[in-house]
Amino acid sequence: RIIDYQVENLYLSLLELEAGKKSMEASAELLQKLVEVEKLKRELGMGTPQSQREAEQNLKQLEERLKDLKNTEMELKRSLNRLMGIPLEHDFAVTAVSYELPYGGLPLDTEPDLQRSVSYRRAVENLERKKSDFDDLTYYDRESETDKYRLTKAELETAEVELEKTILSLQANYQKRKEQLLLAAEAVEVAASNLENAKEKLRQERIKHNLGMISPLELKQQELALLEAEAGYLAAQNRHFLAFRAYMLARDGIEIAN
Asked: What string of H, E and C letters represents the secondary structure of the chain?
């Protein structure tokens, strides 16, 4: 189940990256047009060298970020291939996945199910062994407090502490994942609202553009804003899905990194 979570995490990260790359490419296209506008303004004596340099610098920085993003994509694909046991350089297309958001009024437990936890069961079994070892001590060992008695008693006390630490760790992990799930659910609602607002704003801007009230460049900026809102909504959905997966693992007493 942990490997399943890791695979889902990597794949959804790739989906987010694809959406981000789409938005960034649209932004690069917009910046390229701004550079052309600044060049034209200078030719007409309306612009300044500084404005043109700033536009070109912004475009260059974005192109560098886009390059880094593509390198990150390659690393994520290698990591996923490694996890799946296939050649690292194997390339594959990333396609959108469709899933029902897993949390929506789902009753959340107040405590993890410790009996499902391997680490809890191991700690309990270890404590039972140490108790048995202590119970098996002879009368002489107990009365004389021999080295064997002191060692066995120390091991028993250590096992008791380890069990308590295991329980506290599993409970803390569960509470953390539960809180993260609730926050992720709220983030989806916010991202959905932002997306609807961006759609409505673009609709209004298209009307203005058709009436000649705004330039094609200004319309392009709002189209970019919609792409960014779509990417934000996708990211929120993915994080919600992963938060649910992490919660379900924590509920069953399984701890994962991050």
From this structure: CHHHHHHHHHHHHHHHHHHHHHHHHHHHHHHHHHHHHHHHHHHCCCCCHHHHHHHHHHHHHHHHHHHHHHHHHHHHHHHHHHHHCCCCCCCCCCCCCCCCCCCCCCCCCCCCCHHHCHHHHHHHHHHHHHHHHHHCCCHHHHHHCCHHHHHHHHHHHHHHHHHHHHHHHHHHHHHHHHHHHHHHHHHHHHHHHHHHHHHHHHHHHHHHHHCCCCCHHHHHHHHHHHHHHHHHHHHHHHHHHHHHHHHHHHHCCCCCCC
Give the tens place of pLDDT for each residue, 114-159. Answer: 888 888 999 999 999 999 999 998 888 888 889 999 999 999 999 9
pTM given for the model: 0.69
